[in-house]
Design brief:
The complex is a heterodimer of chains A (330) and B (326). With 330 residues, chain A is an alpha+beta fold. Chain A has a seven-stranded mixed sheet with strand order 1-2-5-6-7-8-9. In chain A, β5 and β6 form a beta hairpin. The termini of chain A are far apart. Chain B is α/β, with parallel strands linked by helices and 326 residues long. Helices cover 26% and strands 25% of the residues of chain B. Chain B contains nine helices and 14 strands. Chain B has a seven-stranded mixed sheet with strand order 1-2-3-4-5-6-7. In chain B, strands 8-9-10-11-12-13-14 form a seven-stranded mixed sheet. In chain B, β13 and β14 form a beta hairpin. The two termini of chain B are 45 Å apart. The chains are: A alpha+beta (330), B alpha/beta (326). At the A-B interface, α1 and β1 of A face β1, β2, β3, β8 and β9 of B.
Chain lengths: 330, 326
């Protein structure tokens, strides 16, 4: 086979081989068992003098629901997944919290689905603490936990399986707007039954276990030296993003401005089923992404594929994320 | 903060800690957390059918002279391509990622990195294998795509010892013939003479045991060689196949994804027959795109696997999303 014939090569190679080469694949060595284990899911990079560690919580993989994108037909969503070279019938939504070491403070932003979820999900998610440990980060050394919004995949990791604090020495910072909305009993009573009631019940479970000991922060404030809160409401009323800046470097921590970028960066007009105010979320998304493109700014996305770090380019229909190449040194 | 004021509490604790030398819970007073300063180990696993593939990064090297990487284009055009991809325009960094394939029967390493024969920024293969729990002695087969130093040097340590003592070593026969031919050495341009010497260093002690292979052959069960000559005289690609899973290992058919995948007609300085290399590159990329076959390529950013989409007059590399479980 001198010319490469694709079809022939695929079909014919196997049969042709042993006869032609003489070295049949016999093994005198004992077979090595398959590992079955993924590498630890953490990745480091510098922003100025700060050291950021992305430590993934894993991912939730589930059959594409009928209404995952509430304003698009399932077929369109399937087609978009296929166009992104992933399974058209399955969604994989990864979760990747980060740790920022500013030199004086060790700060966690969002906390994943909780260690309790590790068992429940058979190891698919709830990996955050394991990956922190693999990264050599001691949960007891964390000074501050910043919460972007009150959905379970961001706050459940505040608690250990026995409901004690997962970061026992950390001050917990929450968006004031988010706290006001979700801790308001009137809002709770008006919340539609089903998912919204569940969101309320879950966040009250978590914060009640913590004795509601949190510090509220406002938008456009430097809430920890070098970390500024930016209001990006819509996904939830108090949804918050951050600019982490040191020296002349910065990264935009977008939280859930988009869910998976394969669908919602590519199609910013699509509304994920988790956006509480879809119209406002879309306005926020377009505003943030136009800014990221204009500023050529690095974005860290909670639901981006690990290590969840990318730039964005403008396309005809929206935006495309260009992952930052893995750097073996930091 | 109407609830318990943590600031106040901490101030109180700190004061007490200073007085007692420890904090209230018996721990020493907390200092700022040290910077870790080290990247995660560069390995990543994925399945191809029943096979388990481990991609292992050997490091990266910054090109000494980035302006000479693409030989048939002015550097500003190259810089524009880099800038459009949000990469630095004043440097080109070349990563090296090799594959370990566990077929269930064989443990096969495809290419070997630099070992301790390269720059300080490479040579991570063995330490990373240790981090991944892989013993180099358990590797029973090494398949070499071609004889450039970044692919073969790691077979043998600088001190002369074999890094993979129990492995049968398989090489493309055309490649073997070229690099072991004294006539070719005599005719070679000066900048390739060193590579001949390195081939001698690596292979001379084991010359009689090296297995040469032809193209289109199954080398071990599930791994087939593919003719991809051009980058070097005997350059080989591979198809790894198990069950419904297939992976096209393009080796160096397309080097830097932003440069030579986007514009396959661009010539890499190391493409020894530029015309043939462009031909092989287009065949590989076209095959991957037409069959939506995942690829792994040595010089893609770690973990160096994904898909090829036809885009405009060239192609685009779409990295596969990281999977947190196998």
């Amino acid at each position: 086979m001198l010319e490469l014939s694709r079809r022939n090569m695929m079909l014919g190679a196997s049969a042709a081989t042993i006869a032609a080469t003489g070295y049949s694949p016999t093994s005198v060595h004992a077979a090595t068992p398959l590992s079955g284990q993924q590498a630890p899911g953490f990745y480091r990079y510098k922003v100025g003098t700060y050291e950021i560690t992305v430590a993934t919580d894993g991912a939730n993989r589930f059959p594409l629901p009928e209404n995952f994108v509430v304003n698009k037909k399932k077929e369109d969503v399937s087609a978009a997944l296929a166009a992104a070279y992933v399974d058209k019938d399955q969604l994989t939504v990864p979760y990747s919290p980060i740790v920022v070491n500013t030199g004086s403070k060790l700060v966690v932003i969002d906390t994943g689905t909780s260690e309790a979820n590790f068992e429940r999900s058979k190891g698919a998610a709830g990996q955050f603490q394991r990956n922190l440990k693999a990264a050599g980060i001691d949960r007891n050394a964390v000074d501050t936990v910043i919460i972007s919004h009150f959905h379970g995949d961001h706050i459940n990791g505040l608690l250990r399986p026995d409901n004690t604090p997962a970061f026992p020495n950390a001050e917990i910072l929450v968006p004031a707007v988010e706290w006001k909305f979700f801790m308001d009993d009137g809002e709770l009573s008006r919340a539609p039954a089903g998912r919204m009631k569940d969101v309320f019940a879950n966040l009250r479970r978590v914060f009640d276990a913590l004795g509601r000991k949190v510090t509220q922060y406002d938008w456009d404030k430097e809430i920890v030296p070098g970390i500024t809160s930016i209001g990006t409401p819509g996904h939830t009323p108090g949804h918050t993003s951050y600019v982490v800046a040191s020296g002349s470097s910065k990264v935009y921590v977008q939280s859930d401005v988009t869910n998976t970028p394969l669908l919602f960066a590519r199609n910013p007009g699509w509304h994920v089923m988790f956006d509480q105010d879809a119209k406002m979320a879309e306005e926020t998304r377009r505003k943030v992404y136009d800014m990221l493109v204009a500023e050529k700014m690095l974005v860290q996305g909670f639901h981006y594929p690990f290590p969840s770090l990318a730039h964005l380019e403008k396309t005809a229909d929206g935006y495309r994320e260009i992952p930052v190449p893995w750097n073996p040194v930091i | 903060m109407t609830e318990l004021s943590r600031r106040t509490l901490m101030t109180g604790v700190a004061a007490t800690a200073v007085a007692l030398g420890t904090s209230l819970d018996g721990q020493p007073a907390r200092a700022a957390a040290p910077m870790m300063g080290k990247q995660a180990p560069g390995f990543y696993r994925y399945k191809v059918g029943d096979f388990e593939v481990t991609a292992i990064n050997d490091g990266t090297v910054k090109a000494a002279n980035p302006a000479s990487i693409v030989v048939n284009k002015p550097f500003p055009e190259v810089q524009k391509a880099l800038g459009d991809a949000f990469l630095p325009t004043d440097e080109i960094r070349n990563p090296f990622t090799m594959l370990l394939v566990n077929t269930g029967k064989n443990l096969v390493l495809i290419d070997t990195g630099f070992g301790d024969n390269g720059a300080p920024t490479v040579g991570n293969l063995l330490p990373t294998m240790a981090a991944a729990g892989i013993d180099p002695k358990t590797i029973d087969t090494i398949i070499i795509s071609h004889f450039h130093g970044d692919h073969i040097s790691g077979l043998r340590a600088k001190a002369g010892t074999a890094n993979f003592p129990n492995a049968e070593i398989m090489v493309p026969s055309v490649e073997w013939k070229f690099w072991t031919d004294e006539g070719e050495l005599a005719r070679a341009p000066q900048n390739w003479k060193g590579n001949f010497a390195n081939v001698k260093r690596v292979f001379d002690p084991i010359a009689k045991d090296v297995k040469q292979f032809e193209y289109g052959k199954e080398l071990v069960s599930g791994i087939t060689s593919v003719d991809a000559r051009g980058h070097s005289p005997g350059h080989a690609a591979f198809v790894v196949a198990s069950g419904n899973g297939k992976l096209l290992v393009t080796s160096d058919s397309a080097n830097h994804p932003v440069l030579f995948v986007r514009t396959p007609e661009w010539n890499l300085w190391a493409d020894m027959d530029a015309g043939m290399a462009v031909g092989a590159r287009k065949r590989m990329l076209d095959m991957a795109a037409a069959d939506r076959m995942p690829i792994a390529a040595y010089h893609l950013p770690f973990p160096a696997t994904g898909y090829i989409a036809k885009e405009g007059s060239g192609y685009n590399f779409i990295p596969s999303p990281w999977q947190s479980t196998l």
